[in-house]
Each structure stands twice: as structure tokens, then as C-alpha cells.
Give the backbone structure.
Amino acid sequence: MYALFEYKGKQYKAEKDALVQVDKIDAEEGATIEIDSVLLVSDGDKVSVGTPYVNGAKVSVAVENSIRDKKVLVFKYKSKKDYHRFIGHRQEYTNVRVKDIIL
């Protein structure tokens, strides 16, 4: 059984006991979150597709830890104008464990 859900504008695939990396959540470790914006649920032989969400479907996740991704370096440059800029960015993510998919 798996489900496709939407969280903070991005879509993720969830299976029971799977680890999913989502954008940073301001919640303590071990907290349980119910996500009700489920787009699709499949239980092997039956597929339920929402318009846009499946009614009554929820994905229950537990917050595990927060991490920061590797640094992405950005270099901006304009020729003959003596302009160059070098900046970096590290995106923050939260790992969540899918506890249950409720239909």
C-alpha cells in the first residue's frame, strides 16, 4: 500500500515505515503529524485518485530529525563590468517516518 501526498507545495510518495525527506518542519522529534492532502492511494489492486484530494484519506508521519543539505555554490558574473559575486546556500530538511496510511 502506498500513497502520494502533497506537503508544502511538493509531492511525495509514502509507504508504511518509509523515510521521507521534506522541507523543514518546526516540530520536536517524535511529534506525530497528520497530513490530509492525499492525492492518490493504492492498496495493491484498487487505486483511489482524488479531485484534487482523496476524501477521508490521511497519512500519519512521525518527525525524526532535521538536517542540512550540502552547500550549493552560486557565482554571478558580468563581463567587462567588474561585477562578480560568490554566495552559498544550504537547504534545511526534516526526515519523517511514515507510520500509517488511513483510507
Q: What stands out?
A: The two ends are 11 Å apart (CA to CA).
